[in-house]
Design goal:
The chain is of the alpha/beta class. It has helices at 28-39, 56-60, 71-81, 100-111, 133-143, 162-170, 174-181, 197-200, 286-304, and strands at residues 2-4, 16-20, 46-53, 85-90, 114-120, 146-150, 154-155, 158-159, 185-192, 206-208, 220-228, 231-240, 252-257, 268-279.
Length: 307
């Protein structure tokens, strides 16, 4: 997959099918839209995603929203879905003021040679968000490209959206979020070397220090699956600050992997959240913590067979 971050280098030699948006989370609605442009590859078009870095909500909002998917995670997902070209449009106050006419004619038509554009009903782009799906349909007659408007997908009588996924995660309902995403909600990172306290009580864990901008579910214990070097391991994961053993408020992601004894400090892993198990709790002693962890492991085994 070709990744373009410099608009001066934006010029395709082939006709393209384009999808425009933030694509935070790349949920089932996004995937339906992306499948439309990937299908056009059979007609000789390049499948192109036009997204923004940072997103408009991050640029213009005084309150910085946490990300469902990082740039790195988005790139991996787009490539797996069959995208040929990913454009990460550098969004600044200046570039965000691009008139909608310029955006369509200069970027979509001249530079991308767009012949097909898939858009959601809530699409907005260019200055003040004035570009929308209706405007694309209007300009399609002038510039000879096709437009397909993709309807929203529902889950349990609710529209699937990045906002709905975010709300589910913030509520700890990682299973609902996963259903909207089409796969478990994931956090990636490099395994950090901690105090190794878990080993002293018989529960060695692999620890991640999540990026500050990554959205996390509430502190607690979750049934998870952890991807290590291409292999998947059933696990239970604690999101929190380990109140029993430290006063630190630093949020960590600690995972106990079933049937796993390797030392993997410095390696990249992926934690996939499947189910909420319990809230994080401060215990009176390490013995109390150990007894609860044993109960967590037993429950995790049962949940694992049901996932």
């Amino acid at each position: 997959m070709q990744i373009i971050t410099n608009m001066n280098r934006l010029q395709l030699n082939d006709n393209s099918a384009v999808a425009i948006g933030k694509f935070d989370g790349i949920h089932l609605g996004h995937q339906k839209l992306l499948s439309e442009i990937v299908a056009k590859k059979k007609e000789g078009m390049k499948a192109v995603v036009f997204t923004f870095n940072p997103s408009p909500s991050v640029l213009f909002s005084k309150i910085k929203e946490k990300e469902l998917t990082s740039i790195e995670e988005k790139r991996e997902i787009f490539e797996k879905l069959g995208i040929d070209v990913l454009i990460e449009f550098p969004l600044t106050y200046e570039t965000a003021a691009t008139p909608k006419e310029v955006f369509v004619e200069e970027f979509l038509v001249k530079k991308l040679r767009a012949k097909f554009i898939a858009a959601g009903t809530d699409l907005s782009f260019a200055k003040n968000g004035e570009g929308n799906s209706a405007y694309l349909i209007e300009k399609s007659k002038e510039f000879y490209f096709d437009v397909k408007i993709i309807d929203k997908i529902m889950f349990q009588n609710e529209v699937i959206s990045s906002t709905a996924v975010r709300q589910a995660i913030l509520a700890g309902d990682v299973k609902k979020a996963s259903n909207m995403l089409g796969s478990p909600y994931k956090v990636q990172g490099i395994v950090e070397k901690g105090r190794q306290l878990g080993r002293t009580i018989g529960f060695p864990t692999v620890n991640l220090l999540p990026k500050e901008e990554k959205l996390l579910p509430p502190n607690g214990v979750y049934k998870t699956e952890v991807l290590v070097d291409g292999k998947r391991y059933e696990a239970i994961t604690n999101v929190g600050c380990k109140p029993t053993v430290t006063e630190s408020k630093q949020i960590l992601i600690e995972s106990y992997l079933y049937d796993f004894e390797e030392v993997i400090y410095g390696e990249k892993i992926e934690v996939c959240f499947q189910n909420f198990m319990r809230k994080e709790k401060k215990f009176d002693s390490l013995l109390g913590l150990k007894e609860q962890l044993q109960k967590d492991l037993e429950l995790g085994r049962k949940i694992g067979s049901e996932v």
